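Running log. JK asked me to keep both predictions on one page so they can be read side by side. First protein, sequence followed by its tokens:
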Amino acid sequence: MKQWVMAGALMGAMPMVASADFIGLFIGGGVWDHDVSGSAAYQGDDLDVASDLALGSNQDSYLWLALEHPVPLLPNVRVFRLDLSMDGNTTVTSSFRFGGQNYEVGEEISSITSLDQVGGIFYYELLDNVLSFDLGLDIRNVKGDATVTSITTGVTESATFDVFLPMLFARAQVDLPFTGLSVGAEGSMVGYGGSTLSDVRGWVAWESPFRVGAELGYRSYRLELDDVDDVTADLTTDGPYAALFVHF
């Protein structure tokens, strides 16, 4: 509740501070090459997702669209979609329980996990020069799914959760004059009731005179769940990414 109150007060104050000074539409997409680490449990034992479930690296795509405008009282808006997926196959070396099923030593298992997210970021430009600084709210829906299947016995168990999260958002970028180059960082974060989510990235970008650009960066995503829909987890997904965008 404290995060809601603070965020609401902040958003109420920001419209009087700054706004975009031009209309801009940004459309982009990228590929994220990521690894996952940490632990998870669903009505059973705490499992190391790398050693117990063999979840490893994967490549996933993401898309975004942003609109910046000169209306002082309305926030700029960015909408996005990010679908994360991890899978693996391994042999059980230590018996464990996942949901209502037991998986015994020697069984061959297959694990599939996904974290699908859609959301909107509503932000104001507090600075808009060589140095730009944005502040706002990131509101996203996170849907998670984890399935463990015994290839040996055919037994399958799945865990799911579905949450809406309001997150504080901040972004800073420095443009290098006359080069089209820029460096920046942004992050969204929330924490309450023992659960937290943070999504942070840093990048180097270049925009051509034709308003087409490219971005290279590194992204780190951490999700902690404390008994949400019977799921407890502490997962970190991170790695480099590459993206293309067009600016109208």
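And the second, directly underneath as requested:
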Amino acid sequence: MNRLLRLITENFVYKILAVLIAVFLWFFAQGEKTSNVTLKVPVIIDSVPEGEVIVNDVPRSIEITLSGPSSALFDYARSKPVYRINLLKTGVGNYIFNVSPSEFDLPDRLKIETVYPDNITVDLDRVVSRQVDVGVSIVGNPPPGTAFKGIVTEPDKVVITGPSTVISNINVVMTIPVDIGKFRNKIALMVPLSLAGYRMVTAQPQAIVVIFKMRQR
């Protein structure tokens, strides 16, 4: 019994320290087990050439699945990685960028298992402007005893700006619908133009004055 007690108490402090170190190393080893994690990495477009515009939907992020020690995965996620596409040396056209694992600055202990999507398409178009006619969209009917006489717009043309492939197909820009069901006399209204159907197109001015001419029957 005394011998057993001596074995326990002899160099007691060192033995406790050894146990604590062993426990620490065990927990550290558990934390360093190989794991997998999927991260959403933002896609950032750099250096769009002047006078050009991206006309397709470019993914806002890509998903990468990583494998490696848990602590290294945590540190990499905390670094907030991004995927950059540089368009400085491009021009009008269609470009496909292959997302390669080698483009990510990974620690040696981490590995990319999957990338989705593994390529990104970018369509660049030229920005142009042209002058087009204005049309007025009318709904409803004049009140009883009143007839619709005509319309005057000020201005009668506007300048639209946007991708050349879109602008080339626009010959007239309409206003938002105007209900003439309550107009009994001549009236002038400021009416916004409707560009909802034209992607990435703007107009100058954005609204026009419309004069509705009415007459009594």
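Observation for JK regarding the second prediction: The radius of gyration is 34 Å.
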